[in-house]
Amino acid sequence: MSIKVVPRYGKTFKEKLYLPAIAGGMKTTFKHFVKNLRNVDSVNTMQYPEVQPTDITDRYRGVHRLTTHEDGSEKCVACYMCATACPAECIFIEAEERFDGVDEKRPKEFKIDLLECVFCGYCVEACPCDAIRMDTGIFSFTASKREDFVLDKKALMNNKRSKDFE
């Protein structure tokens, strides 16, 4: 078995200072600065949030929503598949018995912590009832308190499908 010796760079004092690399980076930055300063109209700047992005694809995963049957009852059967599939463990479900004859049980409590969520979409893929979706089109969720980022069942059912994803 042969051993490949790889030469190590950065032994000289000049290379240890990183000055040539810093100067090269500053040169590139300054070049872009001068180009943008000469022609301000060519700079692509979106005045967010007044102007919303239009290039969001159908595959975009936004804030969650719970879907409902035609009669307004939730489709979720509290099977815990979404909570089990979630790598961030940010979905909390408490089940209760259902007496309307549609299903055996439903979520008494259903909460998603958006600060812990990584928006991977595994919960949507794992759901056997198509009860949870991420097609609201809400891509910036802001709040002033941590508690506001925990969406309960009522808030998730009030989130509607975005017209852009229909």
TrEMBL record:
NDH-1 is composed of 14 different subunits. Subunits NuoA, H, J, K, L, M, N constitute the membrane sector of the complex. Keywords: 4Fe-4S, Cell membrane, Iron, Iron-sulfur, Membrane, Metal-binding, NAD, Oxidoreductase, Quinone, Repeat, Translocase, Ubiquinone. [4Fe-4S] cluster 2 binds at C86, C117, C120, C123. SUPFAM superfamilies: 4Fe-4S ferredoxins. [4Fe-4S] cluster 1 binds at C76, C79, C82, C127. Belongs to the complex I 23 kDa subunit family. This is NADH-quinone oxidoreductase subunit I. It catalyses: a quinone + NADH + 5 H(+)(in) = a quinol + NAD(+) + 4 H(+)(out). Residues 66-96, 108-137 form the 4Fe-4S ferredoxin-type domain. It comes from Arcobacter porcinus. GO terms for cellular component: plasma membrane.
